[in-house]
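[Meeting: bench + compute handoff]

Bench side (C.D.) handed over the final construct sequence. Compute side (W.E.) agreed to return the predicted structure before the next meeting so the bench team could plan truncations. Sequence as handed over:
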Amino acid sequence: MQMLAGKRLVLTGATGFVGGHLVPKLVQAGAEVSCIVRSSSDTSRLPASVNIFVCDLTTGAGLKEALNDQDIFIHMAALLFGTGFQAYLEQNGVSAQRLCEALASVANPPQKVVLLSSMAASGPDASAQGAQDTCLPKPVSAYGWSKLLVERTFMAHYHGELVILRPGIIYGSGDKGLLPVFQGAKHGFAVSPGYGRSFPVSCIHGDDMAQALICATSPGAQGIYHVSDGNRHTMESFCQAMSQALGKKAAIFHIPLPVMAISAFFASLWGQLCACVSPKKTVRAPNWNLDKYREAREAGWVCDCSRLMQDTGFSPKITLSEGMRESVEGYRLRGWL
């Protein structure tokens, strides 16, 4: 943490889920923090000491001023739930292109860039060792392809130090992506994809993810790293820990993949219809959709984070049970559960 004292650091995604865990840590570490936000972003939860740059990642407006004369840039903003391939690829890909254009045109660009990517860019892996940092990418979803596109865009156009983090499932207070799963567990049920299989996964709590991002800014960090809490879980054990934190006993249903495919089709269709009739086209895509089904139908999503630990000293602190308790408390404080 001392390595960030006095450093000028700018980031996207500061008002999002991981940003809510990361920004306070950066301020506590003594960094001079600047946040790139949209004009519609709610900045009320950001610390008063941070600098705010209102920018447009689709047009590039304001990015040069925000990125100039910074030591480190952390890019976390991304579309997580889209109505189709084009939505993911356009929004995430265009943002990366605009950022790289701005980085190339400023007089004093950041010396280091850290990208929060996803294991979806690596592709599925259910092996005992999990996905390695040197694995050949094989995305199966539009989201995964869009994250890989972001990575390759920065690799091609940014010529400073580049670190890419590919985490498994990120969970914790403030996350709306898994909120429907928590709501289901609250009512006594949860779902594991596929009948008669375990569906192994890697996961990490938001606080540990924030710590991994800080470790990625260290001088020894370079290249691609997978991120997890260091343990191999199953979707069933993940949901059981969730239900225990809620004080419930949830029934875990192993839903056959054909049934999940049908439900994902109709959920995606409904999302597209709502987007078409929305006058401002601002309807959020459903959390469960065909793209997420493409990931759920795979054998599992496990990764190996040992190299990140070796290179940077990263050490996950939060167990699954502790993380689930923090998640539930945070959701309840916000009135979401």
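W.E. noted at the follow-up: The domain at 2-176+204-228+302-318 is CATH 3.40.50.720 (Rossmann fold). C.D. will use this when planning the next construct.
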